[in-house]
């Protein structure tokens, strides 16, 4: 059952990352990879909310696997994040590469804390 | 047939060009069977979904085989992200600089498998959990170590693949 939930989450999460990335990248013309940034932050929000919900109330195992290792973990990506940072550094945008790394980490952590607090406030 | 007639010239060049064409131009998307943009888009999405399932199952399986204690350094997620980034470095050099591959290979392997295998959100939530568990040192070390190791892995993997697969990489880098 847990495996099926992970698979179901991944089937949605991976295409959703691609479609979100395409939609975001089509709407700006900077070199900054806002598309990957968006999916990573969205996934941090989802996983943070799940963490808060799991401590505030009882979340079924199946739902936890669907949202956690299934949807959110597949929606977010470290490999594309580091590839885009490497590409920024190689094309001379070292400042953007460093900014991408730091802003993603800090914003991801901040979003996770906000989502956890929101879930706790809503469900506790 | 009049020598000035345009048909004469095109006929000759067409005949001369014909035998070479089918042998040399191998088009993975032959015009006669070219799918519509909608069809191609759904093929890309299906490839990404299939790859995402493979990557997610590999990641989930790894966390079952090597579980991490709640307050311990999350080595499993750390190595998942580092190995996924190394694989991305190898893949991208091979498919963008070395080989011409089928148009669905990059969505399947890059976006699907490696994107689904590696995870930014789990790494972030691991850091949050360590900070909440009263281990801020380990949490910050984990976040910094994952970032530096992942970047070093993709950079080194790409550089080594260029060395191994592209003998004249340094001369051709600018044009690619």
Describe it.
The complex is a heterodimer of chains A (124) and B (176). Chain A contains 5 helices and no strands. By secondary structure, chain A is mainly alpha-helical. In chain A, α1 runs parallel beside α3 and α4 (79-90) packs antiparallel against α5. The longest helix of chain A has 30 residues, at 94-123. Chain B has one domain (37-164). Helix content of chain B is 74%, strand content 0%. Chain B is globular. The two termini of chain B are 48 Å apart. Residues 5-20 of chain B have low confidence and may be disordered. The interface between A and B is large, with 44 and 48 residues.
What is the overall shape of chain B? globular
Number of domains of chain B: 1
> How many runs of DSSP E, i.e. beta strands of chain B?
0
Strand content of chain B: under 5%
Helical region count of chain B? 8
**What is the general shape of chain A?**
globular
| Structural class category of chain B | mainly alpha
Average pLDDT of chain A: 96
**How helical, in percent, are the residues of chain B?**
over 70%
C-alpha Rg of chain B (nearest Å): 24 Å
Helix percent of chain A reads over 70%
Uncertain runs of chain A with pLDDT below 50, 5 residues or more?
Answer: none
Distance between the termini of chain A: 27 Å
Mean pLDDT of chain B: 85
**Biggest beta-sheet profile of chain A:** none
Largest interface: A-B, 44 and 48 residues
The run of helices and strands of chain A is: HHHHH
Q: What oligomeric state best describes the polypeptide chains here? A: heterodimer
Using DSSP, what is the number of strands of chain A? 0
In short:
The complex is a heterodimer of chains A (124) and B (176). Chain A is mainly alpha-helical and 124 residues long.
């Amino acid at each position: 059952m847990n495996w099926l939930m992970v698979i179901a989450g991944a089937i949605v999460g991976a295409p959703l990352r691609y479609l979100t990335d395409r939609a975001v990248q089509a709407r700006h013309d900077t070199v900054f990879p806002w598309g990957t940034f968006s999916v990573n932050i969205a996934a941090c929000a989802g996983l943070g909310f799940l963490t808060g919900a799991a401590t505030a109330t009882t979340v079924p195992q199946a739902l936890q696997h669907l949202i956690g290792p299934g949807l959110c973990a597949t929606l977010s990506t470290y490999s594309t994040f580091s590839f885009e940072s490497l590409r920024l550094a190689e094309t001379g945008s070292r400042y953007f590469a460093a900014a991408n790394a730091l802003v993603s980490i800090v914003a991801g952590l901040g979003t996770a804390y906000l989502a956890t607090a929101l879930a706790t406030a809503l469900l506790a | 047939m009049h020598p000035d007639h345009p048909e004469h010239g095109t006929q000759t060049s067409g005949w001369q060009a014909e035998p070479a064409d089918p042998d040399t131009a191998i088009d993975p998307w032959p015009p006669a069977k070219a799918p519509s943009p909608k069809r191609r888009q759904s093929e890309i999405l299906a490839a990404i979904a299939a790859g995402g399932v493979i990557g997610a199952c590999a990641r989930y399986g790894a966390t079952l085989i090597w579980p991490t204690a709640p307050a311990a350094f999350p080595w499993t997620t750390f190595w998942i992200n580092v190995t996924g980034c190394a694989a991305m470095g190898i893949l991208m050099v091979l498919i963008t600089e070395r080989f011409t591959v089928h148009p669905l290979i990059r969505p399947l392997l890059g976006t699907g498998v490696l994107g689904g295998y590696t995870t930014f959100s789990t790494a972030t939530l691991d850091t949050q959990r360590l900070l909440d568990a009263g281990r801020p040192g380990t949490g910050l070390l984990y976040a910094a170590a994952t970032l530096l190791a992942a970047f070093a892995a993709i950079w080194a993997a790409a550089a080594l693949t260029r060395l191994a697969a592209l003998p004249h990489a340094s001369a051709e880098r600018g044009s690619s």
